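Many introductory courses stop at the sequence. We go one step further.
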Amino acid sequence: MKKLSDILDISPDITLETLQRARMAALTLIKWLLCSLFTGSFIGLIGALFYKALQYVTSFRIQHPYTLFFLPAAGIIIVLMYHFTHEDKNTGTNLVITAIQSNAEVPVRVAPLIIISTLITHLFGGSAGREGAALQLGGSIGNGIGKLFHFDDKDKHIMIMCGMSACFSALFGTPMAAAIFSMEVVSVGIMYYAALVPCVISSLVAHGIAVSFGISQELFLIDSIPSFGIGNAVRISVLAILCAGISILFCVMLHQSEALYKHFFKNPYVRVFVGGCIVIVLTLLVGNQNYNGTGVNIIAQCIDGTVRPEAFLLKMIFTAATLGAGYKGGEIVPSFFTGAAFGCLFGNLLGFSPALCTAVGMAAVFCGVTNCPITSLLISFELFGYDGMPYFLLAVAFSYMLSGYFGLYHSQKIIYSKYKTNYINKKTE
């Protein structure tokens, strides 16, 4: 009786090799399913608790505005915490990105540090986001889980991305964008597809955990989206081009503010104290606390078209003054605020759907500062729905191309040129 391999004219060696590959794929799948389920559950739980804590401190600050005046002292506490844990030179999210690109470590102690310092920043009125905490928290715990299971360096890199996706998903309620962001942000032009299954599973599990805690997904409904045509496409393209410029300005302000603080105030304690005082003065000059904390509530006003014209610029100034001085949090939510406020202004000036322009502005500025076009599209769909797809697509394309090689994270690499099919492998400016 003839063997199947003889009938099909297949070499026995090829058959054996195929079986070995199938066995390896099955074992790899099982490994990452188990790891991602554990990571998503664990980090999802921590992320959900962290989200609740952020809600509490933000609510407390709003109810007790006087807490703002303790911001300089709070900054000193943050610096002391990093000093006593020997994390004085911690580069935040850049450290996590570097760890994926190389064999650098993300110490587990980074997790409690970033949680506490971010909560302190938000409690006392610093202008910051929460994704810095999400990426660092998820990355450090993911790295710790990789070490616990004695993974090699390559698999630890996957665990770091897996942890980042889980925490981002739990805090933002955008599992699609979270799954892709951790893979896309590291090296623009090359995605680590080996991490796709772990990142997707951990993101979905973490999102489910967050939902079970009553954490609902951020949704901004656009009542009516104008029909897509040449005229409207041109308007949105102009907005996207302007948003690319805004994203460059935002990145420059953040990086230069840090450089200026370090130039004039060598001592980190003095630096953070002065930064806190500057935020207090800015708040008093403005006359409200709309630009302290994340400012997510202002985005809803942008959708309604009621935000002040100068809001986008003020948010950038507040954020640069806060993060440049050494306070902790993140830059992405402030970039959402900036893009939304600028989009609203553009829409009001042109008399063209402020709600749509708000959504497009958010997506375009986010894309410009992160250099992550796929994530930008996905987060647009998750936050605003699919109906505005052609506008989001245009905005992301223009913003990605025209934002140049600027970015929030200096460790991020642009692998291929934005203008030609050239391999450049350069870090962002």
